[in-house]
Amino acid sequence: MTTDAIGTHGGAAAGTPPPGGTPLAELRGAGKSYGAVRALHDVDLAVRPGRVTCVLGDNGAGKSTLIKIVSGLHRHTEGEFLVDGAPVRFRSPRDALDRGIAAVYQDLATVPLMPVWRNFFLGSETTRGPWPFRRLDIAAMKRTADSELRSMGIALDDLEQPVGTLSGGQRQCVAIARAVHFGARVLVLDEPTAALGVKQSGVVLKYIAAARDRGLGVVLVTHNPHHAYLVGDHFSVLRLGTLELSADRSEVSLQELTHHMAGGAELAALEHELAQVHHAGAEGPPEGDPCAPVTTGTEEGTP
Ligand SMILES: Nc1ncnc2c1ncn2[C@@H]1O[C@H](COP(=O)(O)OP(=O)(O)OP(=O)(O)O)[C@@H](O)[C@H]1O
């Protein structure tokens, strides 16, 4: 399967205006400083149900800082963060989860040697029987994990297999299905395709689209404009902590998005400089050129 063949984008059709109403989660002029380092400044972002909001940017652009604010790991130091229209200041990811905001990080919080079904319920195990005879309801957990994974279109041969034996893509999918099952309304995905090949990336993008089609608001953080464009409804490009671009799908082409990601203006300047170097190379080094061959006084015959 190639990513081009996935056809995952089925949310807001190109040309349709963004849906109105109160966003599930929203940043308004938000920012974050770590001591003297201003990692994020004056950022607006709206997460809406049934839409994928992509956050793109180069290394150090502020993507992690943004999703850490949304998922309750860090507190913003400027602007506002609203959930269902009301300002919030989460103290921990637990607070965010309680409001339906779940984050799936690259280093998934799974136990590799535990079976898939056990990982699916990790920290939220189903029990049965009255105290003090309460025990894990293994059969119910297996049944639920199986039906939830299937309803997301994830077919695993054996739920008893250790999660560590799954591919990276499958593990991401299990984590997404898990967040959906436990009531996430907003799914925050940190570079879910970063370590994956084309085929596995396609599988993960398909489940992102499935979560979106279930009505979740998805925040997809990625370096990859091609992946973003396959599923994205809105694109926010960060550059040195500020929003360089915030555009709906109908307002930006893949080519433009790629150009912004690559640092369009900088690339143009570099191209210009390279052209000059090339031109100069043909004519010999210009005066004062640091790359010009070094001549010594001795060679010139001076004492
Ligand atoms: N805990 C921290 N303390 C101080 N500075 C930080 C901290 N976390 C991030 N920064 C700085 O904030 C800026 C934005 O970093 P951030 O990790 O949010 O970027 P990013 O877009 O996620 O980058 P990457 O793709 O490399 O992970 C960087 O200059 C980084 O050095």
UniProtKB/TrEMBL annotation:
PROSITE patterns according to UniProt: ABC_TRANSPORTER_1 (PS00211), ABC_TRANSPORTER_2 (PS50893)
Entry keyword set: ATP-binding, Nucleotide-binding
InterPro entries: AAA+_ATPase, ABC_carbohydrate_import_ATPase, ABC_transporter-like_ATP-bd, ABC_transporter-like_CS, P-loop_NTPase
CDD domains cross-referenced by the UniProt entry: ABC_Carb_Monos_I
ABC transporter domain boundaries: 25-265
SMART domains the UniProt entry points to: AAA
UniProt region (Disordered), positions on chain: 1-22, 280-303
GO molecular function, one term: ATP binding
Name of the featured protein: Sugar ABC transporter ATP-binding protein
Lineage: Bacteria, Bacillati, Actinomycetota, Actinomycetes, Kitasatosporales
